[in-house]
Hints:
Layout: H1 9-35, H2 39-60, H3 68-83, E1 88-95, E2 98-105, H4 107-114, H5 119-137, E3 141-147, H6 149-152, E4 157-163
Antiparallel strand pairs: 1-2, 2-4, 3-4
Helix pairs in contact: 1-4, 2-5, 4-5
Amino acid sequence: MADISSIPDDVKWKLASGYAARLPALYDAAFRDVVGKRYNEIEQVIWMELSRTAFDLAHTLSLPVGTAEDLAETLRTVMIVLFGPGFKSESIRVAEDRAVIVIKRCPFADEGAALGAGGTNTFRKCMALTLMTVPHLNKNYTARFVRSMCGEGDRQCEIKIGVSGDLDKKSL
């Protein structure tokens, strides 16, 4: 019998996060047709609830959430911890109260495409998680998708983070 301690932690993390990133597409393939029109609604509730897990993780790791830049970096960190090193992104401070997350590679988009899940279906999951996580981390801030790889076919995702109510008024 193999000893789990003989497997390096980075290998365990990469494998576990890879399977975690694959699960949404597998559930989509297994249940979308069976559940029918209510599938998106039910699934969105699950991903909104996952935002509480993201909050708990950020709190446990004492990640900063005071500014838009803090929130962008914290959200990136949470996504990498939850979904693995295949998540490639960067955060950019645009102004004192605004930041952008640029996602260049996403395990959800990769797995969704590999398993035939539509890009729009993959985008709904990410959008629900992201748009709920930011205000859970700091109630004064909100997020908005500007570009989307899986939803719109863009070459990267871009997520604006800014003060609630001001995000649409100001151009990045």
